[in-house]
Amino acid sequence: MVDVRTETVIDRPRAAVAAYAADPANAPEWYANIESVEWRTPPPVAVGSRLAFVAHFLGRRLAYTYEVVELVPGERLVMRTAQGPFPMETAYTWTPEGADRTRMTLRNRGEPSGFARVTAPVMAAAMRRANTRDLARLKELLERRGG
Fold first, then answer.
1. pTM over cut 0.70
2. Residue 51 CB: number of other CB atoms within 10 A?
3. Whose CB among 15, 53, 76, 104 lies 3.0–4.6 Å from 72's, allowing a Cys bridge?
4. Please, what is the average pLDDT of the chain?
5. What is the C-alpha to C-alpha distance for residues 45 and 28, in angstroms, rounded to an integer?
6. How far is CA 45 from CA 20, 31, 73, 78, 79, in A?
């Protein structure tokens, strides 16, 4: 089992952070490894929404479709994919840290199979590094936009 949890505090209100981070159209801007996102169901994001992602990770091109399985607007978003050798769940949570600060938590969990199981510790470490950089980028983008 791979379970990677990273977080950052962003100097922006929870509603602003959640609205930006939960919008799939913004993912390529703040996720270094995500090349594109394409809607497979009509927007906006809702439970049952399906989104096709193309990413590059550990030197490989990955194409997968996430389905939104939980959505509490402004608080929590959970997406899952069952495709490929590494079924994955990605969860975002947003918690207020005072009036204008938000703690965003990004959690990736999955049960690798086959060869991916052997490389799980390496994948977990790479995911932690990538997620830390991505959250730093998100923080920078949102704080620069400020308000």
1. yes
2. 21
3. 76
4. 92
5. 16
6. 12, 18, 10, 11, 11
